Amino acid sequence: MKLNTRILATAVAGLMAASSAFAGNITVKGSDTLVVVAQKWAETYMGKNAAAKISVTGGGSGIGFAALQNNTTDLCNASRKIKAKEIEACVKAFNKRPTEYKVALDGLSVYVSEANKIQSLGLDELEGIFTGKIKNWKEVGGDDAPIVVYSRENSSGTYEFFKEAVLKGKDFVASAQTSQGTAAVIQGIAKDKNAIGYAGAGGGTGAKHIKVSVSKGGEGIEPSEENVVSGKYPIWRHLFIYVNPAVDKGEIGAYLKWIRSDEGQKVVKESGYFPLPANLRSK
Prior knowledge:
CATH topology of the largest domain: D-Maltodextrin-Binding Protein, domain 2
Number of domains: 2
Structural class: alpha/beta
Largest sheet: 5 strands, mixed
Number of helices: 10
CATH class of the largest domain: Alpha Beta
Strand order of the largest sheet: 2-1-3-12-4
Strand content: 15-25%
Order of helices and strands: HEHEHEHEEEHEHEHEEEHEHH
Number of strands: 12
Shape: globular
């Protein structure tokens, strides 16, 4: 009886998820880093496919994965790879590991105020600033002024990626000002000449990104497309979409294929991020 109940529950979850693939409505949720390009993807695709209806919301990669596990979104946008515990939850929910698609490249950028004379920092200096070891701009060649750190909320994939890649797993300084979404980080920095924060390459205007060197005093590297694609820029990453394999067909399958096409990747570039190299578009 327990086995039959489990089979029934799995079948019901699969049917609930699969039904949206043919309903003409596609829901997308997750990464705030990806939300602008995801909205542009949706607008462009719906403009060419009148029957398609695509709803896009942000909230953070963690929120997107939770929605995927609960069968309340078709597509999960993520600015980090899925965690083992999230895979486990998905397997319990729909009996399969979600399919991962790389959909763009991003040079995670460090932003300061336009009024800040700093042009480049090393990874070790960034670690010191964001963990609170370095508290004044004069310690890294700037003005004698306290450093104000801006960060993302902990449900953000960008927060987790930056913490692992730059802070080496250490905690952010307790005084860091937490912002909901990329735009809020940029806006906060633009208004504060002593601020520093991080966001995707397509973060927006109002603040300037700085170059990043592998070590203090080393060559400052620009987060350009060439440097990100080659891996020369030290804080680069893939951006992802995750989907329940049961719904990866019909309109949803066609949409995912279009996102990774030349036309969909053109939207990526127009949004300030970097298109996938051709060899990654079929993987």
